[in-house]
Specification:
Blueprint (H helix, E strand, L loop, with lengths): L7 H18 L25 H16 L9 H23 L17 H16 L4 H22 L11 H10 L20 H20 L3 H22 L12 H24 L7 H7 L2 H17 L1 E4 L2 E4 H40 L7
Length: about 375
């Protein structure tokens, strides 16, 4: 099968998203971070809260072009490909959670089942099943149905305060199926922001990306396409924002209003990139991000393994035992720029470092795909 054609604006969008992901995931200290580079504490949306939906949006947009090779026909070969790719992505997520494997304090009873790559794998699989069977006219009502269905089950399944951290239906289902020990603990209580039920609306984010990819794939006029994408993006941003007054915009719950709000912003960003790159032909200024977009899953995995490795490494600092992550931040970046800016500089250094790795791979034409 021939390789599907690539749209440069989608590759650049992917690269921008990956670079932002590395930036927000690697501050020198979580106690010293500029507020846009942190997730909203619960309801709301920051710059950081755009990273994950942007990635799923790009997955959807890319699927429009990748599925051309299957002629949009639900063959046995297609389903085998879809399953094994989704399964591979899911298992790599488990690999990251389990790393490093050789530790005296390792306890599988606290292993976290869900995560970012696990959600991507599941959302990719479900979206692929829908996309290969239904055309644009049917996918739009399916998208709307998913968003209203999710709103309904959260409202009916939650107890007092159905959108609160403690009482939401997402948390209840995850505890029922996986147990508290296997959930994320970063919110102070067991609650997984990549839970089972909240993966349902993330399919909607993929479908929005697929619809925008379809606009790019079928257009004969990029100017008209950019206009239509921007109108669509602004429209669902407003709908998501208004819906947020009764169904709050919330990344951890991946609420339907959050799907529309962030999907609209992603559509708007893609429309701007289409205008700059495909219409104005400003490709050279974005070349840096092209490098980031070439091995996106690879750099996600490597960046995660790198952080876990230096967190596990112990070192001495002023008579105290600290991990290598903290040692590097305290001894190199704090003296250079202070606590807050040193933390930012630490994150920027990771962006540059991983870009250099990807640049070497880019020059060698090395592409690692799942």
């Amino acid at each position: 099968m021939s390789e599907p054609r690539r749209i440069y604006s989608i590759d650049i969008f992917r690269g921008i998203t990956i670079s932002l992901m590395i930036l927000v995931n690697n501050p020198g200290s979580w106690g010293h971070v500029y507020s846009p580079l942190l997730h909203a504490k619960w309801h709301g949306c920051t710059l950081t809260d755009l990273v994950f939906p942007f990635f799923l949006f790009i997955v959807g947009a890319s699927m429009r072009f990748a599925f051309v090779r299957w002629h949009y026909y639900p063959s046995k070969e297609f389903h085998k490909h879809l399953f094994w790719r989704a399964f591979s992505i899911f298992m790599v997520g488990w690999f990251i959670h389990a790393f490093p494997f050789i530790r005296q304090d390792w306890d599988w009873s606290n292993f976290r089942y869900m995560g970012v790559l696990q959600r991507i794998g599941i959302a990719y699989f479900i979206s692929g099943i829908l996309i290969i069977r239904y055309d644009f006219k049917k996918l739009l009502p399916i998208l709307i149905g998913i968003l209203f269905f999710y709103w309904g089950i959260l409202w009916l399944g939650g107890s007092n305060g159905p959108y609160s951290l403690e009482n939401n239906f997402v948390r209840k289902v995850d505890i029922w199926f996986m147990g508290e020990n296997h959930l994320y603990k970063g919110f102070g209580i067991p609650f997984d922001p990549e839970g089972i039920i909240s993966t349902i609306p993330s399919v909607g984010t993929v479908l929005i990306g697929y619809l925008m990819g379809g606009m790019l794939h079928t257009t004969k006029n990029y100017t008209d396409c950019a206009k239509r994408m921007s109108i669509f993006g602004i429209s669902i941003i407003l709908i998501g924002w208004l819906w947020g007054f009764i169904f709050p915009i919330n990344k951890a719950l991946w609420t339907s209003s959050y799907v529309l709000f962030t999907g609209g912003i992603a559509a708007l960003v893609l429309s701007v990139l289409t205008w700059l790159i495909d219409i104005k032909n400003w490709k050279k200024p974005f070349w840096v991000f092209e490098v980031f977009g070439t091995n996106s899953i690879f750099v996600f995995v490597v960046s995660g393994l790198w952080v876990k490795t230096i967190l596990a490494k112990k070192m001495e600092l002023n008579g105290e035992t600290v991990n290598a992550y903290n040692y590097l931040y305290k001894t190199v970046f704090v003296p250079m720029a202070g606590d807050l800016n040193g933390s930012l500089l630490f994150a920027i250094s990771h962006v540059i470092g991983f870009w250099l790795v990807l640049y070497w791979m880019y020059r060698k034409n090395i592409k690692i795909k799942l």
